[in-house]
Amino acid sequence: MDFKELRKEYETAGFDPARLPEEPIGAFRQWFQAASESCPDASFEANAMAVATAGADGNVSCRWVLLKGVTKLGIQFFTNYDSDKGRQIATNPRAAASFHWPWLGRQVRFEGAIEKTDRATSENYFHSRPRGSQIGAMVSRQSAEIGSREELEQLQQELESRFEGQEIPLPENWGGYHIIPARVEFWQGRLNRLHDRIVYVREDQGKWSKKRLAP
Ligand SMILES: Cc1cc2nc3c(=O)[nH]c(=O)nc-3n(C[C@H](O)[C@H](O)[C@H](O)COP(=O)(O)O)c2cc1C
């Protein structure tokens, strides 16, 4: 494979920053809706985002998660609080998240603080999931080393019998995170790599400024 020859032109019309709302969450909602409505294939998940966190040692980790909520403050996903990401967030509550919608030639990037969602939000989401996923969340000590797949499957069966006919309780170590951005960038691929980049930066008193960046 000659990686240097992998090349694609982004021939999109760009976008008019003046038509974006004055704050980034409204702009994100508009772009997300466009991405979701134009998604060409069910195998693309418009709500998949790469989330980066860093631990106290300064090492950075990045992984995909699924966006499960948008509030006026930011974006939410759900996970295991004892996972590697959970441990990093506990010591360094900062995160970056990035969406890529290749069928539109668009990227959106969030950077800011991250905090746990309230328990009621986690309860609501957990119980809205299929029962198999609820058991799966309870089975998995996410990011811990395990001996074999059989261990997981055995515990899955035990929990299925234990909770038969009952509601599965939300595990203590499972729930949501809320990324509350201080910076959100909207990127639109254009011809000859002269892309459009508009960044919103939260200034004092919570007001947002909007600037154009060089591609
Ligand atoms: C498309 C996609 C979506 C994912 N969504 C989630 C998610 O919403 N929550 C989650 O905990 N892990 C999700 N994962 C798994 C994570 O990428 C990761 O393996 C896991 O959270 C453990 O990460 P950590 O060890 O850095 O904590 C997803 C993976 C992919 C590829």
List key phrases describing it.
215 residues, 9-stranded antiparallel beta sheet, Pnp Oxidase, Chain A, binds flavin mononucleotide, alpha+beta, 9 strands, 26% helix, 5 helices
Can you walk through the features of this model?
Helix content is 26%, strand content 32%. A hairpin with a 5-residue loop joins strand 8 and strand 9. It has helices at 24-38, 84-91, 119-128, 131-139, 149-162; strands at residues 48-54, 60-66, 69-70, 75-80, 94-101, 106-116, 174-188, 196-202, 208-213. It has a single domain, classed as Electron Transport, Fmn-binding Protein, Chain A (Pnp Oxidase, Chain A, Roll), CATH 2.30.110. Strands 1, 2, 3, 4, 5, 6, 7, 8 and 9 form a 9-stranded antiparallel β-sheet that branches. The protein is globular. It is of the alpha+beta class and 215 residues long. It binds flavin mononucleotide. Residues 45, 48, 61, 63-66, 77-80, 83-85, 142-143 line the site of flavin mononucleotide. Flavin mononucleotide (FMN) binds at residues 45, 48, 61, 63-66, 77-80, 83-85, 142-143.
